[in-house]
Amino acid sequence: MTVQVRPPRSLVGVFSPVRTTGLADEVAARISGAVDSGLLVAGQRLPTESELAAVLGVSAVTVREALARLRAEGVITTTRGRTGGSFVAADPVGALARAQERLAGMSKVGLSDLGQHYEAVTAHCARLAARRAGPADLAELRAVIGPTPDEGGGAAALAVAARRAESEFAIEVATIGRSARLAHEVVLLQSELGPLALLPNDDEEYRRAAEVARGAVSTALAARDPDRAGAAMRALVGHEFAWLIAHRAEAEEASGT
């Protein structure tokens, strides 16, 4: 019997059919990217193997192989019994280490290209949202502007929480824009960005500037000003990628490569 699953809208891009059916590494990368981007949080229970197979459009064998890889990498843990299942591991420090490794492996051109793509999509979402936002939408958006609450767990955990707020804000703006395709694209791009977005959120100065920038987007939406909303969102995303590009250059110079 096919299991019908309705994931939260912020996870639609995570638990939707993969582009190439039957590739366990793509399933693993999709889930790992969602963990590193904050869409899946520490302690969160994943759908069952049969549920994942149904929503991802792959076989149960493929899902089982992907989950085994994620367990080996320390991304998830699995327990047995009535209350068992697969859960996101609580390892924000490991996520930051993966982020550093991912950044070191990206070229400046590739990073810039990803940033331009993400900036273009999110800016258009903001323009649409400025035309379509209602009072309830704006109230939901203001709830994820910041500041990020310190829930304990140190600087690494704070970076994860800040990244989650950043993700939720972008998805909320896309959702307000009432374009399912664009909202889906935002989630997929966030998954592709994955752990990279943790790095700037480990910087207190960046977090404060990002909160101000999110506030500027929200103000433009409330004013129903599409041009200002689009420009504010471009500034927000541009700030993130400028930080990443500068940080990559610094690391490259320090290593002498």
UniProtKB/TrEMBL annotation:
Signal peptide start and end residues: none
InterPro entries per UniProt: GntR_C, TF_FadR/GntR_C, Tscrpt_reg_HTH_GntR, WH-like_DNA-bd_sf, WH_DNA-bd_sf
Stored SUPFAM superfamilies: GntR ligand-binding domain-like (SSF48008), Winged helix' DNA-binding domain (SSF46785)
Name of protein: FadR family transcriptional regulator
Keywords: DNA-binding, Transcription, Transcription regulation
Higher taxonomy: Bacteria, Bacillati, Actinomycetota, Actinomycetes, Mycobacteriales
GO MF annotations in UniProt: DNA binding; DNA-binding transcription factor activity
PROSITE patterns the UniProt entry points to: HTH_GNTR
Domain HTH gntR-type intervals: 21-91
Entry-linked Pfam families: FCD, GntR
Organism: Tsukamurella spumae
